[in-house]
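Subject: for your reference before the review

Hello V.,

The reviewers asked for a structural picture of the protein, and I figured it would be easier to keep everything in one thread rather than splitting it across files. Below is the amino acid sequence we used in the manuscript, unchanged from the supplementary table.
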Amino acid sequence: MEKAFGDLPNLERLIVNKNYLKEFPKITKFKSLKHFAADHNLLLVPTFLSKIAGMQLNSLSIKHNPLVDKYGKLYVR
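And here is what came back from the structure prediction:
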């Protein structure tokens, strides 16, 4: 994903909703990222969370993914 966007160190909001994503690469190059949304995708396992570990996000939205159905809304919250 980082290659697709190139070098965007000031990117603050990344929305990849409705892209049928099952997984995504590390997005830690986006040093200014504060808001990340990946709603309505195909995320099933929580391993993708390790790819955003250490980031200072203000909001993360992963609603309407199989992960939410599998673990429940309280787990995801």
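For the response letter, the relevant points are probably these. The mean pLDDT is 84. Residues 2-76 form one domain.

Happy to draft the paragraph if you're swamped.

O.
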